[in-house]
C-alpha cells in the first residue's frame, strides 16, 4: 500500500470508515514504516520528529499496548501542527507550514485514528503547481502572479491553518494566527473558510477563550500592517455578536490572551512588526524592549479600557486567568524576550501574575525553575479559579543526542495552591502539549485524563497516551500505538461526544 508523494494522499485512505477490522490491521502493518514527505531538510524543525508526514490514513482499530481505554470515555482528541507538504522556500518554526490534523477517536474502549491536511486556499495553489510558492513569516516571498487564478492568495505568506483545532457551536475549526480559519467536517474534510454568520471569512486568533456564564467565544485578531487589534465575541450559536477594538502603539504580535468573568486581558509584549526592517532584509518581527509591556484590561460590561505598563517580557501561552476580589490572577509561561534574530537562552518558566486593578500594579512570582511551554488546565474551569496546571518540560533522563530545543519528555502537574509539582517522566520519548479529558460523570478539577502524543525516536513510532490527571506519576491509563508517526505539533483539544 503506497501513497502518492505528489498529493500526499494514500490511495485507500480517503474514504472514512471504509475499513473492516481485518483491513485495519493490514493497514497498521503497512504504515508503520514511514509516512514521511519525500524530501529532506537541514532545518532541525523539519527533521527528526519535526519532519512532516505526507500520507493521510485511517485506522479503525488501534492496538492498545499497555493499560486499557476507559470504556465510558467517548470523544475525539484532535491536534493540529505545522506540516508543510512541499519543501518550503523558507521556514520559521512555529510560524509556518500546512495544517495537518491528527485525530484519535475513543468509543466503547476502542480507538481509531485518521490524519488529514487542512486544504487551505494556499495549499491548493501549491498542490496545483507541485511545489512551495509562499514565503515564511520571517522571510516573505512574493508569488509569481502568472501561476495564480483569480481570487487566490498572492502571498507573500500563506495561511496554513496549522496552529490549533477547536470546536465552537458545533463548528470544527482549524486556526492560524489572526487570520481566516477553516471549517472541517468530523471526518476532517476541509469545508472552507468560516464566516461566523457574517458575509465574509472572519479573522480569528490561534487561541480562543470561552466565557463561563454565556458560553460566548472570544477571539483576538491582530495584523502586521496595523496597530489595531480586534476582539470578537462569537455567541453560542456561532454568530459574531460584537467586535471590540484596541489600539496599540505599533503593530504587535499577540498569540494568546486571557478572559476572566469580568475582563479581557491583553498582554502586549514589544514583539512588533517593522516593515522597514523587512525591507532591509531583516525579520519583519522585531523585539523592541524600549517600548515596554502594555497590559490592557477590557471590562466586558463596556466600561473604558484600563492600561498598565511594566517592564518588557513576552507571553506565548497562558494557562488560565480569573478574578479574585479586586485582582486578576493569571498563570502563564514567562519568556524574557521574543527576538527571532537573537533568541534568548533563558528558561521559560511557569509564573503567576497578579494584577491589582485599582492600583494599576502587577506582581509576578515564579512557581519553579522548569523550562516549560504549552500550559493547560481543565478547560471546564476556563476563566474561573484553577489550582492545577499541566505542561511539558525536558528532564535529564532524555539522552537522545542532537534533538532540537523545542523537545519535551516530561509532563508536569503544578499545584498552584500548595506550590508543589508532580511529574510523569517519559524517558527517551518525546511528548507535546497535553489536553485535559474530563472523566465522565466526575467534576473534580483533576478528575480526568491527560491526552498526549508521545514519539519514540529510537524505533520511530508514536503512541497516544492517557495519563490519570489525579495521579500523573503513575503508569499510563492507556498506551495506544498509532499506525504512523505523528510529528511534533502545536495545539490540540478533547472534544467530548456529548
Ligand atoms: Fe499557541
Automatic annotation (TrEMBL):
It is an enzyme of class 1 (oxidoreductase). Its EC number is 1.13.11.-. Its cofactor is Fe(2+). Belongs to the carotenoid oxygenase family. Binds 1 Fe(2+) ion per subunit. It comes from Pseudochelatococcus contaminans. The keyword Iron applies. Keywords: Dioxygenase, Iron, Metal-binding, Oxidoreductase. Pfam families: RPE65. Fe cation binds at residues 207, 255, 317, 491. This is Dioxygenase. GO terms for biological process: carotene catabolic process. Signal peptide: none annotated. One of its GO terms (molecular function) is metal ion binding.
Amino acid at each position: 500500500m503506497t501513497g502518492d508523494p505528489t498529493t500526499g494522499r494514500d490511495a485507500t485512505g480517503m474514504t472514512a470508515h471504509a475499513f473492516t477490522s481485518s483491513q485495519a490491521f493490514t493497514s497498521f502493518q503497512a504504515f508503520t514504516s514511514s509516512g514521511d514527505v519525500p524530501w529532506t531538510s537541514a532545518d532541525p524543525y523539519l527533521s527528526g520528529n519535526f519532519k512532516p508526514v505526507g500520507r493521510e490514513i485511517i485506522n479503525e482499530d488501534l492496538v492498545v499496548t499497555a493499560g486499557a481505554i476507559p470504556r465510558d470515555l467517548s470523544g475525539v482528541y484532535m491536534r493540529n501542527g505545522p506540516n508543510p507538504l512541499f519543501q518550503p522556500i523558507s521556514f520559521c518554526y512555529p510560524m509556518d507550514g500546512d495544517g495537518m490534523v491528527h485525530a484519535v477517536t475513543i468509543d466503547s474502549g476502542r480507538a481509531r485514528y485518521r490524519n488529514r491536511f487542512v486544504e487551505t486556499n494556499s495549499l491548493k495553489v501549491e498542490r496545483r503547481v507541485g511545489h512551495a510558492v509562499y514565503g515564511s513569516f520571517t522571510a516573505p516571498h512574493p508569488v509569481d502572479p502568472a501561476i495564480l487564478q483569480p481570487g487566490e492568495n498572492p502571498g507573500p505568506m500563506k495561511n496554513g491553518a496549522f496552529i490549533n483545532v477547536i470546536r465552537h457551536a458545533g463548528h470544527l475549526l482549524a486556526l492560524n494566527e489572526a487570520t481566516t480559519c477553516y471549517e472541517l467536517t468530523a471526518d476532517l474534510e476541509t469545508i472552507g473558510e468560516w464566516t461566523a454568520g457574517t458575509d465574509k471569512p472572519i479573522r480569528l486568533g490561534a487561541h480562543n477563550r470561552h466565557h463561563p456564564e454565556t458560553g460566548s467565544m472570544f477571539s483576538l485578531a491582530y495584523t502586521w500592517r496595523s496597530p489595531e487589534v480586534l476582539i470578537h465575541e462569537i455567541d453560542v450559536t456561532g454568530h459574531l455578536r460584537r467586535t471590540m477594538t484596541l489600539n496599540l502603539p505599533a503593530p504587535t504580535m499577540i498569540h494568546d490572551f486571557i478572559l476572566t468573568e469580568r475582563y479581557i486581558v491583553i498582554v502586549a509584549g514589544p514583539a512588533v512588526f517593522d516593515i522597514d526592517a523587512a525591507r532591509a532584509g531583516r525579520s519583519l518581527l522585531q523585539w523592541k524592549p524600549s517600548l515596554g509591556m502594555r497590559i490592557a484590561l477590557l471590562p466586558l460590561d463596556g466600561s473604558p479600557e484600563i492600561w498598565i505598563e511594566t517592564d518588557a517580557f513576552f507571553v506565548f501561552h497562558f494557562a488560565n486567568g480569573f478574578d479574585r476580589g479586586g485582582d486578576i490572577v493569571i498563570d502563564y509561561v514567562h519568556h524574557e524576550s521574543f527576538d527571532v534574530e537573537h533568541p534568548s537562552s533563558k528558561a521559560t518558566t511557569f509564573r503567576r501574575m497578579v494584577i491589582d486593578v485599582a492600583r494599576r500594579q502587577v506582581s509576578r512570582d515564579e512557581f519553579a525553575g522548569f523550562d516549560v511551554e504549552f500550559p493547560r488546565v481543565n478547560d471546564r474551569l476556563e476563566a474561573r479559579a484553577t489550582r492545577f496546571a499541566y505542561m511539558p518540560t525536558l528532564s535529564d533522563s532524555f539522552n537522545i543526542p542532537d534533538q532540537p530545543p523545542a523537545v519535551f519528555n516530561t509532563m508536569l502537574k503544578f499545584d498552584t495552591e500548595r506550590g508543589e509539582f508532580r511529574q510523569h517522566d517519559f524517558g527517551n520519548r518525546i511528548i507535546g502539549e497535553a489536553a485535559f479529558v474530563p472523566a465522565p460523570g466526575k467534576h473534580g478539577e483533576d478528575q480526568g485524563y491527560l491526552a498526549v502524543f508521545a514519539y519514540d525516536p529510537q524505533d520511530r513510532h508514536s503512541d497516544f497516551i492517557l495519563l490519570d490527571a489525579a495521579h500523573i506519576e503513575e503508569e499510563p491509563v492507556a498506551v495506544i500505538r498509532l499506525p504512523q508517526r505523528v510529528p511534533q505539533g502545536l495545539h490540540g483539544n478533547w472534544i467530548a461526544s456529548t
